[in-house]
Amino acid sequence: MILYFTGTGNSAFIAKRIAEKTGDTAVDVFPMIRENDYGKLSSSRPFVVVCPTYGWQIPHVLGNWLKKTRLSGSRKLYFVMTCGDGIGNAGGYAKRFCEKKGMEYMGCGKVVMPENYVAMFPVPDRTEAERIIGKAIPQADQIAEHIRKENPLPKAEISLLDRFLSTVVNPVFYKLFVHAGKFRTTERCTGCGACVRLCPLSNIRLEDGSPVWGSDCTHCMACICRCPEQAIEYGKASLGKPRYQCPGAGEGNRGPQKNI
Question: In its keyword annotation, does this UniProt entry include Iron (predicted)?
Fold first, then answer.
């Protein structure tokens, strides 16, 4: 069973690609996280977690959900992480997670996808995004072949910088940057409620037809990137940037499609 967590579609795209190549099923965990659903998931095949890299680790919200959710059947667990550049020592944390959960760690693969973090980094236009995705497909297929054969993923070399990013920078990143305080709407907002439906933490509500963000935010960028009117900004950081949605990610993204 392939479990994926996705805000703008990168991880959904890779999860579905791996599912296609392995003949497995891809399951979107956003609705389960939103509903606090920690029910048992059972699979006779290895579990595969596909997710973006947040601060050089798996997203905290996903990690917390996985801790509480019972995974039965196969004891093998793979991690596949999408990123704009690198994943640091995320694999080290994934391995320790498996040890605590009583699962067999099968490795952590990296797939470079288009950058979607409009709150901080430049975002590619559609042409550049499609070029990056084209290069990512062979990476995903190689990982899928290891998973299909139930072989461990190749170990990556971990540098001191990788360890520093995942160990020291990650908590600082969450403390200083992962909050909803800078989200705002513009006059283009129609009050359609798409952002409310997209948020995995139910952190957005409509008041008098306008979105209001609460204090619980994981910076998945689903609200800002999937707004059908591109009516959401994140302070000044998002001004003038494309709103990225992975082309071809499909319905698993839970929101309306709009060209980047």
Answer: yes
